[in-house]
Structures are given as C-alpha cells and as structure tokens.
Amino acid sequence: MTTERRAPLDRKRVADAALALLNETGLDGLTLRAIARELDVKAPALYWHFKDKQALLDEMATEMYRRMVAGTELDPGDTWQERLRRANHGLREALLAYRDGAKVFSGSRFTGTDHAAQMEETLRLFTAAGFTLGQAVRATSSTYAYTIGSVIEEQGVQPLPDERREGYDVAERARMLAEFPLSARAGAEIFHDYGEHFEEGLEIVIAGIGARYGVS
C-alpha cells in the first residue's frame, strides 16, 4: 500500500494542467474530461472549482498573465511609446508559447487583481505624458487588441512556432491566383515573417496614437 499523497486539487493546479494539455489538444480539444483524466480525478471534481469551461479559460488566462510578468519589472524611465513596445512584445511572446494561446486570452476575464499594479503604473505614465485617462485607455486597449488579433491570425497558420497548418503553401496560392498578380504576390507578405510584420504593424499603431492625440 502506498502512502504517497497527491497534492490537493485547487484552481491553480487545474489551470496548470489545462495549460500543459493545451499544446497537445488545442482549444477545441481541451475538455474538462480530458483535464480530469490528466489530473487522475473524475470530471465532476472540477466543477467544485469551475462552473463551466469559460470560468476555466478565465483562470488559464490569468495564470498566463502571472507567468508573463513573474520576475519582471516595468522601467519607470520608459516613454509611453517604449512602454507599449515592451508590453506588447512581451504579450505576443507569452501567447505564442501555447497552442491557441491568443484565443484563450481573448475575451477572458482576469480572476484576480494581479494585473492592476502594472495597469496602474502604465496609466500613470500615460497621463503624466499628456494623455487624458480616456485617451490612455484607448491607446493601451488598441495596441492590446492589435496584438491579440495579430497572434490569433499567426496561430491560425502556425499553431506553434515550429508547426505550420496544411493549406498555407504560398507557391500553390500564387498559382491559384495567377490571374490576380498583385494578390498572388501578396501571399509571401501575408504568410511569412510574422515577427517582422507584427513589429511594423505595432509601430504603425503607435505612430497613429501619437498623431491622433498630439502627444509626442
């Protein structure tokens, strides 16, 4: 008879197991039953901690955020532009670490106040730079939405950095669109060099924020 005791089941342990399983199954295959099997418990045990799958996704997104900011500190000397670059490059990197990471994060609600300290500091930096609070919120929200959308599109083609879905052969696409030469050539721009495209797009958004609100 073994005397080894399993760690008690709690929200963090369930979220950790779900995030570990996510890279194998993707979001569509991530079921409470599969997570329960991974934890060696019965599926109903999970309902003591999460009323439904969305509640679990909320906790997963929160845990992703905790991991993203663990051990990192914001630079109080950042300009507002530098803060947007730092925050959104970090977010992109964190989301790309998980299959369907951006889909999990998108639309989820943080389950605690872990995010509030950095949010407060960022809003303080923006208002000190000359933004109103409303403008600061729209500026940070717009870059956040750009990053989430960009990674969702990227992961639609490359679920993980070293994996590419079938149907995204650029040469085959060019042959199919031969009578539309510019559209055919655009494939090489759309479906390659995602990191470079993200960076250029983020700079466009940041430049637009500065021009819109007249803050340099």
Give a structural overview.
The protein has 216 residues and is mainly alpha-helical. The chain is built from ten helices and no strands. The chain has helices spanning 11-29, 32-39, 53-69, 80-96, 101-105, 116-129, 133-157, 170-176, 181-190, 194-213. The chain is flat, with a radius of gyration of 21 Å. The model has no long low-confidence stretch (mean pLDDT 92).
Mean pLDDT: 92
Number of helices: 10
Roughly what fraction of the amino acids lie in strands?
under 5%
Low-confidence stretches: none
Note the overall shape: flat
Order of helices and strands: HHHHHHHHHH
* Percent helix range: 55-70%
Number of strands: 0
| Derived structural class | mainly alpha
- Give the CA-CA distance, first to last residue: 70 Å
Largest sheet geometry:
none
Radius of gyration: 21 Å
In short:
By secondary structure, the chain is mainly α. The chain is built from ten helices and no strands.
Task: Itemize the secondary structure elements and their pairings.
Elements: H1 11-29, H2 32-39, H3 53-69, H4 80-96, H5 101-105, H6 116-129, H7 133-157, H8 170-176, H9 181-190, H10 194-213
Helix pairs in contact: 1-2, 1-3, 3-4, 4-7, 4-10, 7-10, 8-9
Q: What would the keywords be for this entry?
A:
216 residues, mainly alpha, 10 helices
